[in-house]
Amino acid sequence: MTEKADIKELATAAWRLERWLNQLNTDRKMAAKSALRSIKKYIADSGVEIKDPTGAKFDPGLAVEVVNNEAEDAHEEELIITETLAPYIYQDGKLIQYARVIIGTKDHQDSAARPEKKAEAEESAIGEDKIERIMEYAKIL
Q1: Cβ-contact 23, 119 below 8 angstroms
Q2: How many C-beta atoms lie closer than 10 Å to residue 5's C-beta?
Q3: Between β-strands 80-86 and 64-69, what pairing exists: parallel, antiparallel or unpaired?
Q4: Which pLDDT band, with edges at 50, 70 and 90, does 29 fall under?
Q5: CB-count burial class (<10 Å; 0-12, 13-18, 19+) for 113
Q6: How far apart are CA 26 and CA 126, in angstroms?
Q7: What is the pLDDT of residues 98-130, one digit of tens each?
Q8: pLDDT of 102
Q9: Which DSSP string do the residues of the chain spell out, in sequence order?
Q10: Whole-number Å distance between alpha carbons of 33 and 123
Q11: Are 81 and 103 spatial neighbours (Cβ–Cβ below 8 Å)?
């Protein structure tokens, strides 16, 4: 695996961890946030930038992989990115990872905040074992 592949995976994992931590209420949140800061510093020092396109107007020319279109009948001008599954990753200003997204309309984005969608997202969230490994990795950075 190349160094760029490693940094893409680390950047994506940090992005997912940050999203997960923002929804978490536990006593270990502070330790995890500290580890995340270390990881993000390492990523930034490597010239890597992470961009989440959620909420942006969708354009077929964007460097994204559309995983699902929740509003297939909508006009193209109404489409927005309702959810990001993996962010854009840039290194030294060059795009090294396309974003993976779900598109829909503003109505679909609002419905994504419903409790059943939240429970679904929590099921696919980072597991505690992965968080422990990420925190251990941050200690060696």
Answers
A1: no
A2: 11
A3: unpaired
A4: confident
A5: exposed
A6: 15
A7: 999 999 998 866 665 554 444 444 444 566 666
A8: 96
A9: --HHHHHHHHHHHHHHHHHHHHT--STTHHHHHHHHHHHHHHHHHTTEEEE--TTSBP-TTSSEEEEEETTTTS-GGG-EEEEEEE-EEEETTEEEE-EEEEEE-HHHHHHTTSHHHHHHHHHTSPPHHHHHHHHHHHHH-
A10: 21
A11: yes
Torsion of CA 121, 132, 36, 10, to 10 degrees: -80
Name, in order, each residue with C-beta under 8 angstroms of 45's C-beta and a sequence gap of 6 or more.
none
pLDDT at 77 over 70: yes
Beta strands at 99-104 and 64-69: parallel, antiparallel or unpaired: parallel
Confidence (pLDDT) at 120: 44
Global pTM exceeds 0.85: no
Residue holding tokens 């396109």? 53
Q: What tokens appear for 36 in the block?
A: 């995340």
For the record, the structure tokens of 70 come out as 């929740």
